[in-house]
Amino acid sequence: MNKVVVGLSGGVDSSVAAALLHRQGREVVGMTLWLMKGKGQCCSEGMVDAAFICEQLGVAHHIVDTREVFAANIVDYLVSGYEAGVTPLPCSQCNKAVKFGPMLTYAKETLGIDTIATGHYARIVYNPETGRQELHRAVDRSKDQTYFLYDLSQEILAGTCFPLGELTKAETRQLAAEFGLKTAQKPESQDLCLIESHGSMRSFLDKYITPQKGEIVDQDGRVLGEHEGIHHYTIGQRKGLGVAAAQPLYVIALDPARNRVIVGDRASAHDPECTVQRVNWVSITAPTAPIRAEVQVRYRTPPTPATVIPLDGGDRVRIVFDEPQFSITPGQAAVWYDGEVLLGGGIIELKEKSPVT
Asked: What is the pTM (predicted TM-score) of this model?
């Protein structure tokens, strides 16, 4: 089908994705999701810029109010996660529940269009031997966003295209200038939309979670200091602890039941394995035996060799790393690859690491 709905955030990447498809002769329809009030590229400023891009290209522009969906799936998800002592990853949750799913549904049911596109740096490749849509890393590895897309279903991948997957960021900027797009020199957003709107994650969380003072303790239960609320801390954190010690200390666990922040040296912040829940197998079906893969436990950390062991029919996995990994954080995503191909991913489970007392 020649028609395609392009998700426009008001940034340079989505603008170029729309312009490229338009130049290819596709019938482009712009769509911007209204996620929340306040400034930030995903909200008021972004909607204005997205509308301007559609005017430049001479295409229709739809604004879809998804504020309630965003509040239920992202705001509540974040708040409940931090209250439970984990550090949620909102972007992958948002991509599945708020962006791609609702976009594709709106495109099909309201506009009668079967395909959506976004400005993400990733590639979708159909494998005729397996009959599955495979998610491949972008050509520009420094901009690759597959880590945040691991939770997309086969149905969503089949109805999605990523026009920037074969481009570098420099090439995208150059194309934006060639197209004469208003967003050509627009700076990239460096923070989550919630941080852009509220100033910091701390100030956002303090609107929803009442800070409760508690103890900062070492692994033996010795009290080293006091905190203002465990939701202000995350695994691996070193700065801002307010604790004096002979050696650098890191947050190694959060104990919401006792309202404690547990700290230790850098060695104690490493783990040889983790368990992952809510697993989505992307480019392959769930295996019945352990597989070797390269696992990424944070967006900016390099993938590392590990053995992925399926549990509960593949709905959960146990990951055993070849070498212990620093700052494996419950609530964040663990995503595993075979070279360029994203095999699957899920959410790191909370692991008990409380002091003995």
From this structure: 0.91
